[in-house]
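Possible regression after last week's pipeline update?

I re-ran a chain I had predicted before the update to compare outputs. Posting the input and the new output here so someone can diff against the archived version. Not blocking, just want to make sure nothing changed silently.
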Amino acid sequence: MHNLASRISLAFACCLTILAGCALIPYAGIQMDEALFAGPYYQTIPREFRLRLFHHDIPLMVMTYIGTLKTLLYWPIFVTFRSTLAAHSIYAAWIIRLPMVLTGALTVWIFFYLTERSAGRLAAVIAALLLASDPTFLLTNTFDWGPVALEHILLVTGCFFLVKYAQDRAPRDLPLGFFFLGLALWNKAVFVWALAGLICAVVSIFGRELRQMTNRRHLAVAAAGFLLGSLPFVIYNGHRRAETFRSNAHLEPRGAPAKFIHVRSALNGSGLFGYIVYEEESDHPKAPVSLRGRAAVFLRDHLGEHRGGGMEYAALLSLLAVPLWWRSRAARFCLVFSAVAWFFMASTRDAGASLHHTVLLWPFPQLFVAIAIASIRWKWAAISICLLLVVGNLLVVNQYIAQFERNGAAGPYSDAIYPLSAALSEIPGQTIYVLDWGIQFPLDLLHRGRLNMRGGHDPFLSDPPNEWAKGAAARIFADPRAIFVTHAEKRENFAGVHQRFDQAASAAGCREDNVRTIPDSNGRPVFEVFQLACQ
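New output (post-update):
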């Protein structure tokens, strides 16, 4: 009966992940970084990011620190749904996001078995429910602009096979575990933070067992598995003299303490209000239309606004309740991993101050809290605390859905990207100049690379412009058929670009013509499309 109850709880947790993700999918437009992985399908791959093999270009990396694992995984999906993935189609959001939602459910499923082997069945049930209902996990996994969804499943799967090898000694589990960790490094190089946490946690908590199990053969097998998983990453950095680390590995430990606030906002689930969804006091709210939206608004109106769950306090109380978890080496492992990984994350320049970085610590904070709760002597109390935390998490998710329904997606997630895509025609010979960040990759994806788009903001980033910028601007103004796309006033990511563009155009005897404003579903102006009329 206990086994049946745990399996039912696991099924519920996986279904909860899928249902919550599906409820969130339609609200937000395709975001720039979310569409980044599709770049190699539609754009020319820079020579340094590809490998020539058997007369074919094999994409190895999308950027210096992001690999093409997700690109290759989506290749059969894009081939299958080629006709559906069309301009101005809302179905594009489902094609891009549903696989990641399913990946999140699979992460919860594997995490359950990892926890069961590490800390027992009750802790596994609690951990799976806490992760499946976690607002930060659900949002970052569904919209996956990090990207983080593959990082989570590869980390959890790699740890599962290594724990399984330590317990069962099945020979294939050791290389499999390191293979998945290698894939995670190729997928995104910031996985070195998690690797540092894993190494320190294993050595400090399981040092004696590690010495007993380690020999030359084990080291060779583990290295081979890791090298096989990270091979494209190794090839790229071998050819480019460790470009990933030379370009991105710059430490600034002094700034780490100030970034701890992002750990708190990630734990309580409040960190994405105002970033991914408009706040309650925003202008142009609309009445809820969908069934889930009306239900979310009803709950929000009757139960109040919930912008944070109880995980922040649960983690703090668990830290203080040392007698509950001190004998559990899995709990101490979680603490060491989280502390070391977060330190390296927060000490890296331009990192650790965004939730798509902080969430890479997941799911080990949930595992630690689950172990502490499961260690309570009265099981009814443990189950009650778990349910309270889950309900608190779901109320925060409900708050996000209510704000999505009434106020719409914010900033780079605006659903105005769909009417913008519909407003742009695929006219041969016509060039579309994009004057701001956050526009080009989503349009490339929605039009399957058939728009002749070019970045047009570089000549207008500085004031006064240098000689190169003047020449580049003159070539842009000389194109009589050019169309220009930018954000509406006060929505620019590159502040002042539109103003400097207008000044340069006026100096060249040109002015904006045929200006069209593209609003979002709430009627707020988001994009502008125009041409130039020159004397």
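Follow-up from reviewer: compared with the archived run. The beta strands are 50-53, 56-59, 61-63, 66-67, 432-434, 453-455, 483-487, 510-519, 525-534. Marking as no regression found.
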